[in-house]
Write a structure and sequence with these properties.
Rossmann fold, 4 domains
Length: about 550
């Protein structure tokens, strides 16, 4: 008797040997919940059947979950027996009728199956006993031993297994999580198993083996998903399949975007689903949302829980930096079990624009790579690269990363340039007022540099009395409401202002802004200011329509006579 974990190759070879022989025997496979015992057994069983390498001609699968008596199990074995060449097909009314006809034999002409369908309950007990007599010389898989009903003792099940082997010439495979037994059931199981089982295997795949078994190779993203699962050390096949199903939905929604959008979505979803469904093994969702890879690198290091160090290391090697706006939409989908497709695609559009910006210049990330990825004495090169990145790459640097970089420059003796770099950053960002309000920023606690905080506050105060046209129109278009100040402000904009605004926006932002600009067009009691807003917005759209044939077609969806 082999008793212990083994590699997947040895495991599959043992299954193949078991199936290829007609000799009665009992094979027991143990392992933790969700590790993929049933999934692996079914995979290798189908592979053997495809190779015509299954010696016995009949097969039955029975889960003990909810079964409360041996009589229930015996009937289930009869009811679920199918020819082994139909492995992969569930037992159904057709296979049950075939089994019944086998039992009644020469009585077929008298006991027509159809006549008894309304009376199944009347003769089910007798049929079950007759049916069980027909269970012999076949493969029997008994699953979920630890989940049997209260009326079904473990020792009775093992007694039935022994009977199937010794008296009915069956090959029996037991699948169970031995860690889930009650105390008494475990005592019974341990004492009886050695008498019953010929071979006991513990199924403990490595992350690489679990990915090889669990990830469907036919999907377009299978390589990404395998790398993700291995990177997080996931060995639970149920979780891997859950991630895969989620990824298929993401693929359908994001198929029109740059493939890197889908890759990020699957990368983040893998982490979020792992965290949600294996909370004892993974970083918590709360920790992931607050994760900052630069924490502890600058200033005084705060004490933290012991496992946080392990989690930080895991997230860094997984390639997760911080949760961004797009990730938050993915996380919302994971938590709710469904997507807001409009929100998902809007976030994907913004992420795609950000990727295009990053493609033009990766100097900021390269500067930090030079800091993290060597022990060279290259401080001047690293710091020069960071300063140059802020000057060149302001549009792609988040406030949190700006604060962290400025803080490091100061600690490394480059403080004299800090305020100039901050002002260059602010001058390069043409953002709505909300961007400068750090109280609304999700990582406000990580923006610690006082000069960055002060500069953002001054920018916010300076622009507080100057509404941003795009933000106002977006709000009107989204909320379908406005106040007199909004109307007065929009009426102060010229057709040129609307033209510039429409030409600089894209995607969902553009559609919302145009919708907001034309909101007053269908109001019966529109005042003169509202009419002026509509007039200038339509004039801007007609100017855009006159620029090209394709723009003329685009504008027609807003102005029919353009």
């Amino acid at each position: 008797m082999h008793n212990g974990p083994m590699g997947i190759k040895q495991f599959s070879d043992e299954i193949a040997r078991f199936l290829a022989s007609k000799d009665p025997e009992v094979l027991c496979i143990t392992g933790k919940w969700g590790v993929g015992k049933t999934f692996a057994w079914n995979r290798y069983l189908r592979e053997a059947q495809a190779k015509n390498a299954v010696a016995l001609t009949r097969y039955a699968y029975v889960s003990l979950f909810g079964q409360n008596s041996l009589e229930d199990v015996r009937y289930a074995l009869f009811e679920n027996t199918i020819p082994s060449n139909l492995i992969g097909k569930k037992a159904d009314l057709t296979t049950l009728q075939s089994s019944i006809e086998t039992i009644v034999g020469n009585w077929r002409g008298v006991l027509k199956f159809g006549k008894y369908v309304p009376k199944v309950a009347d003769f089910a007990e007798g049929l079950g006993k007759l049916g069980f007599i027909n269970v012999h010389d076949q493969i029997v898989c008994i699953d979920d031993l630890e989940r049997a009903g209260a009326g079904l003792d473990t020792k009775d099940i093992l007694g039935l297994v022994s009977f199937l082997k010794e008296q009915r010439e069956c090959k029996v495979i037991l699948l169970l999580n031995d860690e889930a037994f009650t105390e008494q059931a475990e005592v019974d199981f341990r004492s009886q198993l050695e008498k019953v089982a010929d071979t006991v295997l513990r199924f403990e795949p490595t992350p690489t083996e679990a990915a090889d078994i669990g990830v469907d190779k036919s999907t377009s993203f299978n390589k990404w998903l395998s790398v993700n699962c291995v990177g997080l050390g996931i060995v639970n096949i149920r979780v891997i399949k859950r991630i895969e199903r989620f990824a298929l939905r993401l693929e359908e929604e994001l198929k029109s975007f740059d493939q890197r959008i889908l890759q990020q979505a699957i990368h983040s979803a893998t982490l979020f689903i792992y965290s949600k469904y294996q909370p004892d093994d993974a970083p918590s969702l709360d920790f992931i949302q607050k994760f900052n890879p630069y924490q502890g690198l600058i200033g005084k290091k705060e004490p933290e829980e012991a496992n946080h160090t392990t989690w930080r290391s895991l997230l860094r090697q997984y390639g997760f930096t911080n949760i961004d706006e797009f990730d938050r939409v993915i996380l919302q989908g994971v938590e709710q079990g469904r997507f807001d497709t409009v929100l998902l695609k809007a976030a994907a559009e913004k992420q795609e624009l950000q990727l295009k910006l990053q493609d033009k210049d990766r100097s900021f990330s390269q500067a930090w790579d030079a800091y993290h990825d060597s022990f060279d004495d290259n401080a001047e090169v690293v710091l020069n690269g960071m300063e140059e990145a802020i000057r060149k790459y302001a549009l792609a640097i988040t406030p949190m990363n700006l604060s962290g970089t400025i803080g490091l420059l100061k600690e490394m003796g480059r403080g004299k340039n800090a305020k100039e770099l901050i002002q260059q950053y602010i001058a390069a960002r043409t953002e709505p007022n909300e961007f400068w309000d750090l109280s609304k920023y999700p990582f406000r606690g990580d923006i610690k540099d006082p000069d960055v905080v002060d500069a953002f506050q001054k920018k916010l105060e300076a622009s507080a009395d100057k509404p941003e046209p795009g933000s106002v129109l977006d709000r009107i278009g989204t909320q379908k409401g406005w106040n007199p100040e909004d109307v007065a402000f929009l009426a102060s904009l010229s057709a040129d202002d609307f033209y510039k605004l429409f030409k600089t926006q894209k995607g969902l932002d553009l559609r919302r802004i145009i919708y907001g600009a034309l909101m007053f067009r269908d109001i019966g009691n529109a005042d003169e200011k509202m009419k002026l807003v509509t007039k200038n917005a339509e004039e801007a759209l007609r100017r855009i329509a006159a620029e090209s044939v394709i723009n003329a077609r685009r504008v027609k969806q807003y102005i029919a006579d353009a």
